[in-house]
Design brief:
ten-stranded mixed β-sheet, two-stranded antiparallel ribbon, 11 helices, TIM Barrel, 323 residues, 12 strands
Length: 323
């Protein structure tokens, strides 16, 4: 039989494979999540996330600078408080760890884009993403507090705010508050499609944010639902979101593809702590090649339609891609 076309012709050497490659990973695609701890000289490795540490501002600045020198353009800051209370009041404090980190990063690593997570779970004594009333998360009462947190981040130097709480209407409330305070040019990167996922476990260790009771299924999305993702994203677009995020990433590549196909805003995807930890654990046991699997997983997220990838591998991947 005469073969009219042989797909293998374009795979036979690396030069050809590179020339016809459809999807490309670049350090500029990455956002590097970092955990800001109170105090000085703090570097506490998270046991379930090898290589990831809680860092005081002084050490965080050095880590962020190292990432920037490798070509990573942005960091995402999560804060740990000195104390927790029912309303997560420290989240909006000018003296909070995130606010202090923002001011130092602006001074010392000015080329970095500074993104902040806007949520209450790490700051509340109950570990939920909003305030509690009658044993339930009170959606509307939480909006004003979340807006105050976003404004406090903008005042401290945040370039982008990223609400992750999944309260209904929070993008609109934050947009209105930012605009009223003169921060109309601060974009909102919305955790628009955030599933109630089992892949968040190691993050909750890092941020010390596990719920003290119940779970987050009443406000984070059911993993079984796909059409709902488009509704959630559409609502955030209407409220003023500038970038839409899907979280987690690898178990939800179909959702990334659907959201990317439906909306013309930039699409971000978060390769979450559980995805990172699985690769690290398998590599530590000699079951997988860490570098190869890391890059393949990131490539899959990009191929699905993500323009931006939040990943704890950002620095490591950027170093490899820059060789």
């Amino acid at each position: 039989m005469e073969l009219l076309f042989r797909p293998r012709r374009l795979r036979q050497c690396e030069a050809l494979r590179k020339m016809v490659r459809e999807t490309h990973l670049r350090p500029e695609d990455f956002i590097y999540p970092l955990f800001v701890s109170p105090g000085k000289g703090v570097r506490q490795e998270v046991p379930s996330m090898p290589g990831v540490c809680r860092l005081s501002v002084d050490n965080l600045v050095a880590e962020a600078r190292a990432a920037a020198e490798l070509g990573v353009p942005a960091v995402l800051l999560f804060g740990l408080p000195t104390k927790k209370d029912e309303t997560g009041s420290e989240a909006a404090s000018p003296k909070g760890a995130v606010q202090q980190a923002l001011r130092q990063l602006k001074k010392q690593v000015p080329q970095l884009l500074l993104i902040t997570d806007v949520c209450l779970c790490g700051y509340t004594s109950h570990g939920h993403c909003g305030v509690i009333a009658g044993g339930q998360v009170d959606n509307d009462a939480s909006l004003e507090i979340l807006a105050q947190v976003a404004v406090s981040h903008a005042e401290a130097g945040a370039d982008v705010v990223a609400p992750s709480d999944m309260m209904d209407g929070r993008v609109g409330a934050i947009r209105e508050a930012l605009d009223e305070r003169g921060f109309e040019m601060v974009p909102i990167l919305s955790y628009a499609v955030k599933y109630a996922s089992s892949f968040y476990g190691p993050f909750r260790d890092a941020a010390e944010s596990a719920p003290a009771f119940g779970d987050r299924r009443s406000y984070q999305m059911d993993p079984a639902n796909a059409r709902e993702a488009l509704r959630e994203a559409a609502l955030d677009v209407e409220e003023g979101a500038d970038i839409l995020m899907v979280k987690p990433a690898l178990p939800y590549l179909d959702i990334i593809a659907q959201v990317a196909g439906e909306f013309d805003l930039p699409i971000a995807a978060y390769q979450v702590s559980g995805e990172y930890a699985m690769i690290k654990a398998a590599a530590a046991n000699g079951w997988l090649n860490e570098e190869a699997v890391m890059l393949e997983s990131l490539l899959a997220i990009k191929r699905a339609g993500a323009d931006l990838i939040l990943t704890y591998f950002a620095k490591q991947a950027a170093a490899l891609l820059g060789k």
